[in-house]
Amino acid sequence: MHFLARLAFGRTALPFLLAFAATGCSSVSLDQPIESRTWRLASIDAQPVIPSDDPRQAVQIVFDRSAQRVSGSGGCNRISGSYQRSGASLKIGPMVSTRMACQDASRGQLETRFMAALANTTSYSIAGSELILLDARGQTLAKLDGSSK
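RE: above sequence
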């Protein structure tokens, strides 16, 4: 009887476990490339970022697959650099930027934090239209919104 109970449980549990494994994981789909889309910073260090009304101050990046380059704006300065992506692994940088002074000190601090998040990124995940940059421990560094606005 004990054997039959284990067998019955195994038959009902296996489809459940397979369904959970297929839907419960936040894996990276290569069908959802990060390239050729503008990613706008939505949060950093778990703090929401209020988007700027001025598009020149928008903190955003675009990945170019053919050149293996990333470029955009840190909010005050233009930024660019290289990147390498393989599956869920993502290495960004080294990054360079123009050296314009920020008129708004909080924008300058946000740009510094954003550049640090990019430099510390080792992997990523995608949830809907959101790109999540992760560090070596799997902790979220920043979330970027890729929906067209």
